[in-house]
Specification:
By secondary structure, the protein is mainly beta. It contains 3 helices and 37 strands. The protein has helices spanning 3-18, 263-272, 385-388; strands spanning 27-28, 33-36, 46-51, 59-64, 71-79, 84-91, 97-103, 106-114, 117-128, 131-135, 143-151, 155-158, 165-168, 173-178, 181-184, 188-192, 199-206, 212-219, 228-231, 234-235, 239-245, 256-260, 281-285, 291-294, 298-300, 302-309, 314-320, 325-327, 331-333, 337-338, 352-354, 356-364, 370-376, 397-398, 401-402, 406-416, 421-430. It starts with a helix and ends with a strand.
Length: 434
């Protein structure tokens, strides 16, 4: 092979890479998306997709001479019925480019005649839009439906090599959001566990060409969530408990508080009456924020039912305490020594009693003479006895005079709020000490 042959091959390859393919250059636009056609063979053209409003053509194409050349530009539009291009417009000004605007959907061809010859370019135009609507057609106590609709045109272009139609895939995407949270990606979505507040939801419908349609709707809440706390949740019986109602979206005056009986008592009755249904409810309260006193010792559970009324539904929500309210069992305790010397420390003989219903305290000297007595058939919330029931405390005096140091005897007897008989007795020492 000679040198001339190799030079010819090189020139041929260079021309193949330098000369632009018809249709893929020199027509530009401000389209939202530009993608190539998918003809069965031959050169491909560009498809220019413009996002806008329905029935408002806003396509625009600009044809430019390559290399800064100038001349005349004639535009034609493809006629799908005849398979030919019909005259559309022309620019005989001799400029370097020509722009056609407000274009309807279709295929446009620009014939550029300049000093360097004739160039022909082809491009497709589609006016895209998406309009969306949103509504909530169904709402009940457990869920509601987000229903969206949208309108967007279908696009079909023609394979200019074969005359066959080709559908343009738009790849429609749907997204429901609540703020930054994606709720669903289907056009009609069921939302479970509805919120207890009126909540806006946004619908966004988009396609691969960056066209977007938006709509929004507000869910009007018809549900409630029962929430509460108690204070205190344990202590001496009788135990006064304050119920703090923190329920969401419940109707005032529509709260029900179910106070259940002592757990151990329910178990005892159930074991004695196999197969029998045991009534476990002690009382039902209807205040929004009640205060209830548990008179007897025991472990108590509480259930709150919150109610929300709407035009078509009555919705409820129920919650239980995470742990039991405990009214303590009864007990009696007494010291074995006290020093009534006025130093502010251990100056009184204090019998401690807790969760008692009735009690009697008696103190005797070593010869059995009664020196002090106190009793009550309705003991409530004495806790620190020296402050709450000072008359139950012996100050170490007899007839207003100081008792002599020595050994004394106490007897305590009573009924606890757990219905148990409580007794305590024993000796204790009285010291005068300096």
């Amino acid at each position: 092979m000679n040198k001339t042959y190799f030079l010819g091959v090189a020139l041929f390859l260079a021309l193949c890479f330098i000369i632009p393919k018809a249709g893929l250059a020199q027509i530009t636009s401000g389209a939202n998306a530009i993608i190539p056609t998918q003809y069965s063979s031959g050169n491909q053209d560009n498809i220019h997709v413009f996002c806008g409003q329905k029935d408002v053509p806003n396509g625009s194409l600009t044809a430019s001479f390559p290399g800064g050349d100038s001349g005349t530009i004639e535009w034609t539009k493809y006629n799908a019925s005849t398979g030919t291009f019909d005259f559309f417009s022309s620019d005989l000004s001799g400029s370097t480019n020509s722009t056609i605007s407000n274009l309807a959907d279709g295929c446009y061809r620009a014939k550029l005649t300049g000093t360097s010859g004739v160039e022909i370019y082809t491009a497709w135009v589609f006016n895209d839009y998406i309009t969306a609507t949103a509504e909530i057609p169904v709402s009940d106590c457990t869920s509601f439906t987000l229903k969206g609709t949208f309108d967007s045109p279908n696009f079909t272009y023609t394979d200019l090599q074969t005359g066959q139609p080709i559908d343009l895939n738009k790849d429609i995407q749907v997204k429901w959001t609540n703020g930054d949270v994606v709720v669903s990606q289907i056009i009609e979505a069921i939302v479970s566990n509805p919120p207890t507040k009126d909540t806006p939801y946004s619908l966004e419908v988009s396609d691969r060409f960056s066209c977007v349609g938006k709509a929004s709707v507000t869910y009007i809440s018809i549900v409630t969530k029962a929430v509460f706390s108690v204070s205190p949740n344990t202590g001496e019986a009788p135990l006064a408990v304050t119920f703090s109602n923190q329920s969401e979206n419940g109707d005032a005056g529509k709260f029900q508080w179910f106070i259940f009986r002592d757990l151990d008592q329910i178990k005892k009755e159930a074991s004695k009456n196999p197969g029998k249904v045991i009534d476990s409810i002690m009382v039902v309260l209807y205040n929004d924020d009640p205060i209830y006193t548990f008179q007897n010792s025991g472990k108590y559970m509480v259930k709150l039912v919150s109610t929300k009324l709407s035009e078509q539904h009555t919705c409820y929500d129920t919650t239980y305490l995470t742990d039991y309210i405990v009214a303590d069992t009864s007990f009696i305790d007494a010291p074995n020594v006290f020093t009534p010397n006025g130093d502010g420390v251990n100056d009184a003989f204090i019998v401690k009693f807790w969760s008692m219903k009735s009690i009697k305290i008696s103190i005797f000297n070593r010869w059995g003479k009664l020196l002090h007595v106190w009793e009550s058939g309705n003991v409530e919330n004495y806790g620190n006895t020296i402050k709450s029931v000072p008359q139950s405390v012996w100050d170490g005096k007899v007839g207003g005079k100081m008792a002599t140091p020595g050994v004394y005897f106490y007897v305590v007897d009573g009924i606890g709020r757990d219905d148990k008989r409580r007794k305590a007795s024993g000796f204790f020492h009285l010291f005068r000490g300096k």
